[in-house]
Amino acid sequence: MTQGLLITVAPTGAETAKADCPQLPTTPEEIAATAAACEAAGAAMIHLHVRDADHAPTLDQGLLREWVAAVRSASSLVVQLSTGGSVHDPLAERLKVLDAEPDSCSLTMGTTNFGDDVFLNPWPFVAELYQLALERGVAPEFELFDLGQVHALGRLLSLYGPPAGGKVHCDFVMGVPGGMPGTAPALVAGVAALPAQVTSWSATGIGRSTLSVAMASLSMGGHLRVGMEDVLTIARGVPVENNAQLVERAVALGQLAQREPMTPAECRDLLGLPVSGATGEA
Ligand code: KMH
Ligand code: ZN
Asked: How far apart are alpha carbons 182 and 236 in whole angstroms?
């Protein structure tokens, strides 16, 4: 039996300006259309960063809820809200993201230099966010930007136990200037260091590391995250047209590895979420 392939799409992020990339989805209407197209292409989960009317990153509670509703009305995708936000978002606002009732949330396991900025994730914040996710039944996806964060995940799980559904899913985010490189040896080291409680993992490579990380992940039985949060070119000098194009490429890579895309219901099972819990799912 072949192992299914979870494809998560991260369509927007917090770093790219709409003015620099008009095809970046930054409105509820564009995110709904993106969700539908990416689900049709083979994605099962969406990692969302929300933008305001000026296309700027925001953690406004009303907009978070509006974007979650937009995705749920247009698709069955598992909705993961970013709690990372932008490097400028205060920790207190990042904790409130869970009030918007996503299925899943990102949870970064430590502070990382992020280009010229700092992506702040002090231990007390990580622990509080995890306990909040446990209380709310939100499935965390542990984001791992470097090897130290892989070890921090083991510490978190031994202190507070696994998520409510018993599944531990994490995602290697590689190639960020300041984090681990987007290379096969780095991924091999990261996977070797995963705590025993981890039940599934995916990987994404930023920028030009996207393909090498995707192929390394597939070769090790991992899952994939793709999307315009992480890469804006489909080949050197060729801009991505839309997020579905990146999902289609991930599906094609998976098929070469004899991995068929997971459905959103299969993704819910992978994350330990109730399978019938999502709006829009039978
Ligand atoms: N935008 C980055 C500073 C996450 O979504 O949780 C953080 C980030 C991670 O993208
Ligand atoms: Zn993100």
From this structure: 16
The structure's pTM equals 0.97
Query: Which one-letter DSSP state was computed for residue 164?
Result: T
The minimum-distance atom of ligand 1 relative to the CA of 107 is: 6
Atom of ligand 1 nearest to the CA of 85: 1
73, 81, 252 from 29: Cα distances, Å = 11, 17, 27
Spatial CA neighbour of 201 closest among 6, 46, 44, 3: 6
Q: Give the rounded distance of the alpha carbon of 96 from its chain centre.
A: 18
* CA separation for the pair 213, 179 (Å, rounded): 14
Closest approach atom of ligand 1 to CA 114? 3
Answer yes or no: is the C-beta of 227 below 6 A from any ligand 1 atom.
Answer: no
Which residues are 235's β-sheet partners?
Answer: 238
Q: Whose CA is nearest to atom 4 of ligand 1?
A: 84
Q: Is the CB of 121 under 6 A from ligand 1?
A: no
Other C-beta atoms lying within 10 Å of the C-beta of residue 261: 21
Please, which contacts does 53-62 make with residues 24 or more away whose CB atoms are closer than 8 Å? 55/17, 55/18, 55/19, 55/26, 55/27, 57/14, 57/85, 57/86, 57/88, 57/89, 59/85, 59/89, 59/93, 59/94, 59/96, 59/97, 61/96, 61/99, 61/100
Instruction: Quick: pLDDT tens for 117-150.
Output: 999 999 999 999 999 999 999 999 999 999 999 9
How confident is the model over 55-71, as pLDDT tens digits?
Answer: 999 999 999 999 999 99
